[in-house]
Amino acid sequence: MGDRRPAGSDDDLPRETGSGEQMPIDVTGVFTDQGVVNEQTVGKPVGQRTVIRIESNDRNVSELYFTPPGGNELLALRLVYTRIK
After folding, report:
1. In a domain, 56, yes or no
2. CA angle 14-3-20, nearest 5°?
3. Which long-range contacts link 73-76 to residues 24+ away (Cβ below 8 Å)?
């Protein structure tokens, strides 16, 4: 039987594995700004960091940070997911 997952699915991405719980989840990278951060950073590499905290079964917090060239890290977005009971 062949693999039935669609091409380009997340399953095609490389995975890193560890042992035990790893909290918070912290993912870093760099993107070329197209005007998301500000006009001065268009076309320049901008550091990006995503932090995900699973605080409980009822509350998760995701934060997105940008670090413009020569600048300090800035909180760009915070998402709080709360289960409605």
Report:
1. yes
2. 40
3. 73/47, 73/49, 76/37
CA distance 46 to 68: 5
Residue 46 contacts residue 67 (beta carbons within 8 Å) = yes
Total tally of structural domains belonging to the chain: 1
Residue 4 lies in a domain: no
Residue numbers of the domain that contains 47: 21-82
Give the HSE-up count for residue 8: Cα atoms under 13 Å, Cβ half-sphere: 0
Q: What's the pTM value of the predicted model, to 2 decimals?
A: 0.70
pLDDT tens, 31-76? Answer: 999 998 889 999 999 999 999 999 999 999 999 999 999 999 999 9
What is the C-alpha separation between 5 and 61, in angstroms, rounded? 30
> How many residues can be counted in the chain?
85
